[in-house]
Amino acid sequence: MSSLKEICAGLPLDPLPPNRGRDPSVPHAPVRTPNLTPAEERLALRNALRYFPPNLHATLAAEFAQELRQYGHIYMYRFCPALRMRAYPIDQYPCRTRQAASIMLMIMNNLDPAVAQFPQELVTYGGNGQVFSNWAQFWLVFHYLSTMTEEQTLVMYSGHPLGLFPSLPSSPRCVITNGMVIPNYSSREEYEKMFALGITMYGQMTAGSYCYIGPQGIVHGTMLTVLNAGRRYLGSGDLRGRVFVTSGLGGMSGAQAKAAVIAGCVGVIAEVDETPLKKRHEQGWLMEVTSDLSHCIQRIREARKAKLALSLGYHGNIVDLWECLYQEYKKTGELLVDLGSDQTSLHNPFSGGYYPVQLSFRQANQLMKTDPQRFKTLVHESLCRQVEAINKLSDAGMFFWDYGNAFLLEAQRAGAEVEKKGGGATEFKYPSYVQHIMGDIFSLGFGPFRWVCTSGDPADLAETDAIATAVLEEISSTVTERVRQQYSDNIRWIREAGKHKMVVGSQARILYSDQRGRVAIALAINQAIAKGKVLAPVIISRDHHDVSGTDSPFRETSNVYDGSAFCADMAVQNFVGDAFRGATWVALHNGGGVGWGEVINGGFGLVLDGSEETGQRARLMLNWDVSNGVARRCWSGNTNAYETIQRTMENQRQLRVTMPNPVQEEHILDHALQG
């Protein structure tokens, strides 16, 4: 087993590590089908070999060519480290700066087998959310970080470390871009070729920005979504005896089972792949598993009647489950589902993100490789069947929403009946969860704020939990009732997080907070580090799925109705603004959530070390990181955002935002246009 010191020494070339191939004990990414020409295969091989000196090319060329043809990409399995991947305590990393060590810790957490979906393919979540494109990049990045000073910045081009460049101590230590392809060439087909060539990468959101904290983040977001869906659709946040049906237990979707139980409802989650199903069951996140639809229906009835909080995993296809629920309704008149959604990885529908109901899991994996066009046809047919069943259950009284995974977008492309008559470009028959549920929360400035205790000590996490709870309780007594409800949900969450064993990987926590709360929590934690109450630096971050971080017309900005939902100024400005206001590292991505070419999003990491300078950075950067998005949403006509940014300007004398003057009388427009 190698050590952290060896990992930081650079690519192991003399001698080369043994080629152990793929580890059969961990799950692996589906085979990619880039359909390269012979000339493109040659280019892909040439590109991969440039990481190595010429005397090794003959040895490595043949195995890299085999990987390319067998798996559709050159991962360089030979260089997958023998060291156990996990977030080691920060003091164990051989670095010259704690900022660099913090980045190392976060990268290793993203690749921890307990966290990552396909660790040997460097995929953290979502089926294709890469940390790096190949293992050579991993070794080079760790070598650069171990030697970096506070006057250097590591520049990352889609997984490739361009190098260390001179910069200021106040500059970010790492600047990441992923998938920044010229817009006219940012198609799904072009992406598969470019990724196979090793020249670009799909970083999802927090995979490629090194900020994933395991499924805890989506547990919290899903819990809030389900609670607020109950309030909106069912008239109550008390979900005892209510049934929520969805699909996916792999990467981020694996959080749905735990979230349903915390929200108090019956969660029924379909999953075709037995491996993640077993993983969630062994973690204790999934309470029961069945592959029998009759037994599944029986358990739904029993749990509804007893008002049990239950997570039930159905090992099978979600389409079969939806059709069975409709047949049960048709036969008995009993609607067994109240709330419905979907979290299959439909941003990646033809490469393992969605499995058509006509095929077994094994048959689907084979067909997507041998006959991609036929597989695509079956995916479209399956989506149409799925939507048909959902539509019938919806007509009977179920409430369904799109979870931002491109379900309705891909269903529309498949020809399914999801059109909203008279709807705008981002509207479908069913709302996205942003449009109806979380969008109002974003407009109030609330979003997924998180932190990681770099000591690795659970006592530090408990201390920061207590700090955050105290901060939110103090603020909640001074805010409006609507904002207080959000604080109350998050205080409840953080108090119960320990009981529900949320930590997978690093000692991390997430909660939804507004601008005032984020700044206050960060400053309080920084003060606790200075006083020695928290033993080591704490990294603060957020999901890209946030108030300002993402421009995504079918998700994060789907409730922006002034025509600018397809514009990406907000996310790009956020990335730039975070960089010069004090972030330790920043990232900007093409794709994430809804898919390649559909989204621009960004994130950051900021290391709190207890210093006064760090406190100033946190205050300046976090205020910008929220106000940017609230101001944009205000300008688009959102009344919640208007009120929120008005209050923020009253509290921050240097903040001045251009405020909209809405048209009050529609007849003025009618008269002008008729003229």
From TrEMBL:
Highest taxon in the source lineage: Eukaryota
Do you know which PROSITE patterns this protein is assigned to? UROCANASE
**Enzyme Commission number(s) from the entry:** 4.2.1.49
Q: Which InterPro entries match?
A: Urocanase, Urocanase-like, Urocanase_C, Urocanase_central_sf, Urocanase_CS, Urocanase_N, Urocanase_Rossmann-like, Urocanase_sf
| Positions of the Urocanase C-terminal domain | 440-646
Query: So, what pathway does this thing act in?
Result: Amino-acid degradation; L-histidine degradation into L-glutamate; N-formimidoyl-L-glutamate from L-histidine: step 2/3
The record's similarity note reads: Belongs to the urocanase family.
What is this protein's record name?
Answer: Urocanate hydratase
